[in-house]
Amino acid sequence: MQALVLTTFAAPMSIEHLPVPQPGPGQVLVRIAASGVNPLDTKITAGAAPHARPRLPAILGMDMAGTVAAVGDGVTTFHVGATVYGMAGGIGGVQGSLAEYGVFDAALLAPVPPGLSLREAAALPLVFITAWEGLVDRAHVQAGDSVLVHGGAGGVGHMAVQLAVALGARVYATGSAASRAVIEALGARFIDYRTSTVDDYVAEHTGGVGFDIVYDTVGGATLDASFKAARIYGGHVVSCLGWGTFALSPLTARAATYSGVFTLLPLLSSEHHARHGAILREANKLIDAGKLNVRLDPRRFTLHTAHEAHMAQMDGSARGKLVVEVQD
After folding, report:
1. Three-state secondary structure along 147-212?
2. Which of 18, 59, 73, 164 has its CA 20 to 30 A from that of 47?
3. Helices 155-166 and 273-288 sit at what angle, rounded to 10 degrees?
4. Using an 8 Å Cβ cutoff, are 318 and 312 in contact?
5. What pTM was estimated for this model as a whole?
6. 202, 210 in Cβ contact below 8 A?
7. Residues 141, 145: Cα–Cα separation, whole Å
């Protein structure tokens, strides 16, 4: 098979011809059709993501969609010919999806719903799982809650907005003026973070009380601002980019709470794989109901041009999720 291999950090990946792997117990061999691109992929390539525990040489690509080509012992959930998708590799020494075939733990995968193309499916797993873990598993969002999503037009952000809307929350999302139409089309009230301070939008939209749930998908100073936007007595802040040092005093002063989301943990720890497969099945329900769409960048990439997809991720030109099409 052909695979794109990273042998040295901060250097180009190269196409190599490798043997097709074989599935072991609980695993499936997938003929990979598409590989989703995430910011973490470019950080790993640059050698700037030690928390992902990469081991060189590495085949990157955490998200994938494709067709089951063989099943290992004990696998009853999928059969040869089934289309599947998931966040299944690309970190911690596990082969990723920038290859024509890959062996993955069946528990991490879900069937591709009829309303989703393989290209769309490959763009969805990491961002939806991250959104679900933050809003549902950590913050326990309920109908009627006020939810603020920072970075509402981004990868995780546009999933979090749609999920919160689908669950009956009143949703607000920050972004630049250029992202206003996208955010409003997703069902959220737009907040221009460049022209409104945290005090401004907390006063305007909550009467100064704060939001029930704040989901930070940006990190840094935005997480600091999130602590000031949480509802007094019982607000909850969630972040998927809570790296660094932050002052918790604004959160404490509001008697609010905080949770971090580390979506990579099941892959790195080899535990709770079935939870990720179950979350993707929840995504399927929303897709079937017409309540969830993945926003794709219109550009097309192959294994031979995957570096261009990585460049687009890094230079900020992406207008939606980027996908590398591995095979027709």
Report:
1. EEEECCCCHHHHHHHHHHHHCCCEEEEEECHHHHHHHHHHCCEEEECCCCCHHHHHHHHHCCCCEC
2. 18
3. 70
4. yes
5. 0.96
6. yes
7. 7
